[in-house]
Amino acid sequence: MAEIIKVGMLGILGILVAVQLRAQKPEYGIYIGLAIGILIFGYTLKEFRTVLDQFQVIQGYLGTGKEYLSILLRVIGITYICEFSSSICKDAGYGTVAEQIEVLGKLAVMFAGLPILLAVIEQMQSFIG
User: Fold this and answer.
1) Judging by beta carbons within 10 Å of its beta carbon (0-12, 13-18, 19+), is residue 8 exposed, middle or buried?
2) What tens-digit pLDDT sequence spans the chain (129 residues)?
3) Is 101 exposed, middle or buried (0-12, 13-18, 19+ CB in 10 A)?
């Protein structure tokens, strides 16, 4: 909980500094926002290692369904990276680019999930046939 408070305070402090500098030089506000975003992203990646360790424990219990857990991790990664990139583009005033990144993310998630859909269809076929 204390780590979340630290990250939140870092974000708020960074935005306050960016707002102050934006009045003098608008590009500095964008650079500070980008730097704060990268710092928070780096912290998230550090914490993600703990999550991966827990997923490995879960994989041990799954047996034959291990590939579904890797798909889940891939989807989480895709959504996080697309959201992060899209937010930076929106902050910089490039809303159209942000929307294109979001569309790409949605398509990537859809394609990443296709093996799960195919497995469900195969299960349904096995019950019918």
Assistant:
1) exposed
2) 788 888 888 888 888 888 888 778 878 888 888 888 888 888 888 877 888 788 788 877 877 677 888 888 889 889 989 998 898 888 888 899 999 999 999 999 999 989 888 888 988 888 886
3) buried
Provide the 3-class DSSP secondary structure of residue 128.
Answer: helix
C-beta atoms surrounding 31 within 10 Å? 14
Q: Name the pTM for this structure.
A: 0.69
Q: Which two tokens stand for residue 115?
A: 């093996």
Residue 78 to residue 110: CA distance in whole angstroms: 11
One-letter amino acid at 14 equals G
